[in-house]
Write a structure and sequence with these properties.
Elements (H helix, E strand, L loop, with lengths): L2 H21 L3 E7 L2 E6 H57 L2 H14 L4 H13 L3 H14 L4 H13 L3 H14 L4 H13 L3 H14 L6 H21 L3 H14 L4 H13 L3 H15 L2 H13 L3 H14 L4 H13 L3 H13 L5 H13 L3 H10 L11 E3 L5 E2 L15 E3 L2 H6 L10 H10 L1
Helix pairs in contact: 1-2, 2-3, 2-4, 3-4, 4-5, 5-6, 6-7, 7-8, 8-9, 9-10, 10-11, 11-12, 12-13, 13-14, 14-15, 14-16, 15-16, 16-17, 16-18, 17-18, 18-19
Length: 459
Amino acid sequence: MTVMAFLLLIILFLVSFLYFSGLNPQEITIYYLPDEHFTFSVGIIVISCVLIGLVLGYLAHLYSSLTHLVKHWKQDREEKKARDVAAIYREGVLRLLSGDIKRAHSLLQRALDRDPSRVETLIAMASVYTQEGEPQECIRLLLKAKALEPRSLEVLFKLSATYEESGRDDDAAATLLEILAIESDNKKALRSLRELHIRHNRWQDALDQQKKLIKAAAGTRRQEEEKEKLLFLRYEVARQALEAGDVEQAKSEFKDIIKQAPDFVPARVSLGDAYRQLHRTQDAAEVWRQGYDNLDKSIFLSRLEDLYMEAEDPAALLTFFRNALLEKGHDLMLRLFFGKVCLRLEMIDEAFEQLQIVESSGVDFPQLHFLLAEGCRRRNRLEEAIAEYKKALGANDRLRLGFVCDTCSAAMAEWQSRCTQCGAWGSLSLAGRQTIKSALPMQLNEIHPWEREAWSEQD
C-alpha cells in the first residue's frame, strides 16, 4: 500500500467519523466496575470498536504469519536434515554392499545418531551387525524398527531370519505367525514356518502349513512341487503314527501314498514295516519283492534279508534270490546280496561264486572287498583276507553295506526314509550302487538243470 493510499484511507475514515458523529450526537455510559464507568458519544464507541477489531485482526494475521514462517523454517530444516541423512544412508548401504563393513558401520551409525527413527537405517545397520557376527545387536535394532513399524513385512522377515540364525527357532516361528496374521497367504512365510517344523520333526504342523501353502500357490508354477512336498509330509506323519503304534492308520496312509506315487520308495519300505509289525510276514515280503522289481532299490533286498533271517527261514530267502537270478541273471545287485546272505549262512563256495562274478564285472568298492575278505577268512586264506580287509576298511561286523544319498552323497550306516543332510526323501541307496548298475558282467556261468535241482533239494 502506498503512502498516498494510506493518507486517503485516513481522510476517508475521518470524514466517515465526523459524518457518523453528526448523525449520532448521543452519549453512552458504560460501567466496567460497580462504581467505575466512562461516557462517550456513540460515534466514538462505534469507531473504537472498529479500530479494536482491526487491531485484533492485524495481530491475528501477524501471529499467523509468524507461525507459518516458523513452521516453514522448521520444515525446511527437517527436509535438509532428511536429505543429509538419506545421503549418509545411501553411502553406508553402498559401502555395505561393497563389503567395506567398517566404513558402512561408521556411516550408518552417523545416520542413526541424526535420525534414530529411520526404519531403513535400522534395517541396514542390523545387516551390518549380522556381517560382524553380532546377532543380538541385530535383533535389538530390528525390534526397535518393529516398534516403529509393527506391520512392516521386511522388518518381520529379517527378524525371523536372524532369530533362526541365532538358534531361536521358537521366536522365529512366532515372528512368522505375526506375518501370517497380517497376510495369511504369504507364501514365503508359510514355507519358512513349514521348514522350521520339519527341522524339529513336527510333521503334523508342517503338513498343516503345507496344505495352506498349496491353497495359496494355486495356479502358480510351483503348485506341483508343493503337492509333491505334501506327499512327503503325509508320509512322515504316517511314519510317526507307525512308530507310535497306530499301525492300521499308518498302513492305510502308506497304501494311499503308493497309489498316488508308485515310485516313492519310503512308502513301500514302511508299508512292509507295518505288515511286519502286524506279523503278516508274507504281505511284508510281497511288498518288498514288488518294490525291488519295480524300483530296483537295494533297501528292499536288505529288508527281505532281515525279515527272513529274523523269522529263522533262510530257505525262503535263498529261494527268493535263486528264483530272482533265474529271471535277472545280469542283476549284479542281486548277486551281491545273494553272496552276502550265503556268507551269513556259511555257504562259502556259493558266496564266493556270486561275489567273484560281481568283482569280475569291474565293480570295486569297499563293501564288496569286505565280503570277499570275510569269505577268505572263513576259508582260512588269511593273507588274502587281510588284503581284502585293507581295501574294505571301515565296514561293520554285521556285514551292513551302508548307504549314500543320491542327492548330496552323504554316507549313512543304516537306511533312512529321508537324508538327514540335505532333507531329500527316498534318496538313500547302497554305497557303490551306480558302479554296480553301470557295470556289465564279463562272464556268467550258465545255470544247468542239475544246479536248479540241487537248489530245490537244499530248500
